[in-house]
Design goal:
- With 72 residues, this protein is of the alpha+beta class.
- The protein has a single domain, classed as Alpha-Beta Plaits, CATH 3.30.70.920.
- It has helices at residues 10-18, 44-54; strands at residues 2-5, 23-28, 35-39, 61-65.
- The chain has a four-stranded antiparallel β-sheet with strand order 2-3-1-4, covered by helices on one side.
- The chain is globular, with a radius of gyration of 12 Å.
- The relative contact order is 0.30.
Length: 72
């Protein structure tokens, strides 16, 4: 997932995401997005819950983009 944060909220959002048990990795970025987050979820419903009920409720989160990795 890619996150854009409100100005000066990058660190607070980074720390909040780091504490979530579904988050495997969090990385700060330079450029259009502020954070890159790798999450684990068993199904689409779980992913939707993470995004809508948890991640988007974090103070300072401005925008998200979800990218789903697949295997060939």
């Amino acid at each position: 997932m890619l996150f854009k944060t409100e100005p000066s909220f990058e660190r607070a959002v980074y720390l909040a995401l780091s504490e979530n048990s579904s988050v495997a990795e969090v990385h700060a970025l330079y450029g259009e997005y502020d954070l890159l987050v790798r999450v684990t979820s068993n199904d689409e419903k779980g992913l939707t819950n993470l995004l809508m009920q948890q991640f988007r409720m974090i103070s300072g989160v401005k925008e998200t983009q979800t990218l789903i990795a697949v295997e060939y």
